[in-house]
Automatic annotation (TrEMBL):
It comes from the Bacteria. This is Lamin tail domain-containing protein. It comes from candidate division WOR-3 bacterium. InterPro entries: Lamin_tail_dom, Lamin_tail_dom_sf. Residues 13-64 form the LTD domain. The lineage of its organism: Bacteria, Bacteria division WOR-3. Gene3D superfamilies: Lamin Tail domain. Pfam families: LTD.
């Protein structure tokens, strides 16, 4: 008899994206900010290691967003 144990690993899920919304630039974080965001969902119980994760518009271009090494779960 063989016993297999399947470990379900936490993976980052891009849950929601708000890019370039219509309207005036009204964000408070930096000039030109229009309240753009990316929501990443952590499906597991452990903290996700996002070091090295980047969002780019092209591999040859500059990184648009580099994630911090760790993002806590703020919404239980």
């Amino acid at each position: 008899m063989n016993l297999w144990i399947l470990a379900i690993l936490a993976v980052p899920v891009i849950n929601e994206v708000m890019s370039n919304p219509k309207g005036q630039e009204s964000g408070s974080l930096s000039p030109g900010d229009r309240n753009e965001f990316i929501e990443i969902y952590n499906s597991g119980d452990d903290t996700l290691d996002l070091s090295g994760f980047k969002i780019r518009d092209n591999q040859e271009e500059d990184t648009l967003l580099a994630f911090p090494d760790e993002i806590k779960n703020y919404f239980p």
